Amino acid sequence: MTAIGGAATVRRMWNFSAGPAAMPLEVLERLRGDLVDLDATGVGILEHSHRGPTFERVLEESMRSCRTLGGIPEEYEILMLPGGATLQFSQLALNLLPDGATADYPDTDVWSAKAIIEARAAVRANIAVIFEGKRFHYDHVPTLGEMTPTAGAAYLHYCSNNTVHGTRYSTPPRAAPGVPLVCDASSEIFGRPIDWRAHGLVYAAAQKNFGVAAMTLVVIRRDLLERTVRPLHTMASYAQHAKAGSRLNTPPTFAMHAAGLMFKWMIKEGGVEEFARRNAAKAQLLYSVIDSSGGFYTGLSQRPCRSDINVSFRLRTNELDSRFAAEAAREGLDALAGHKDAGGIRASMYNAMPLDGARALQEFMREFMRING
Ligand SMILES: Cc1ncc(COP(=O)(O)O)c(C=O)c1O
Hints:
Aspartate Aminotransferase, domain 1, alpha/beta, 16 strands
């Protein structure tokens, strides 16, 4: 927990929420000022027209910072779209998957399972579940030998970091030759480098590593934008959003601005490689306690595919899980209860979580084990 001085003292918890998630205080304070007066215009960010010159500059800077931070190649279009990542589950199928065609979906967690359901609801195509992680309690992502990608598929969709059970792919899965990879990177984008050119499309909800809910980043290779697989209504069409510079209608202007500030903050802090290093160090603090706890704590994921962002584990009983989360909250460590589908404990540590927050949780885990072990 951090106490902040100034006119009013603010009590800030160490926030381990999976999303919406912790943001850096300096970005929040900047946003607070921008609510009332953005760049000395006498008008706040919530009040500026999305067609006016001030917002035009805000969006242009946000897009530019995004490209710089991610090292996103020019042959990829950046879209900032309304709605969360859940909307992309159907939107990407509508845009990329023709009727009667096949798309591959390894099912590795709650969110990839939802992506499968939504794609099936959106299009009359074959959604091929090429790995059924649920059979393994989602404790790992597939090895090469565990899935057989479909030759000629329209794409292979995967979730690079699984927010609920805390697994991740160390490298992208291998699709059949010529088949584009489509990646849900919601819980790790800008937390470790992405090989953009290995992907046709990468998308991520904003509410974890770059700000405010209700906006989703879609990075799509331009040749895929030009493929029309079916007639679409305007708001569903990536091509239409691209043509309109992500301003087809009144867009989520505040979220676009918050994202821009987050991109700049991440650049200033050293960029994606630096965050990958920090995230690995934070995760290691917790995994080291789990691994040396003699079974007091049990990780939900197999070691080779452990996430550096979402550390999920359980204690010996549900009662102990609940007590752990409740006592942690009293010590200033917030939102540690696991996802409802997995139970246990989950510590989500996105880029804005400092090492000190992970240290505080490590200390709490040791103390809780000493008293209850
Ligand atoms: C990996 C992943 N994909 C998709 C989503 C859904 O995002 P949203 O709630 O913004 O639709 C989440 C939410 O936590 C997520 O973790």
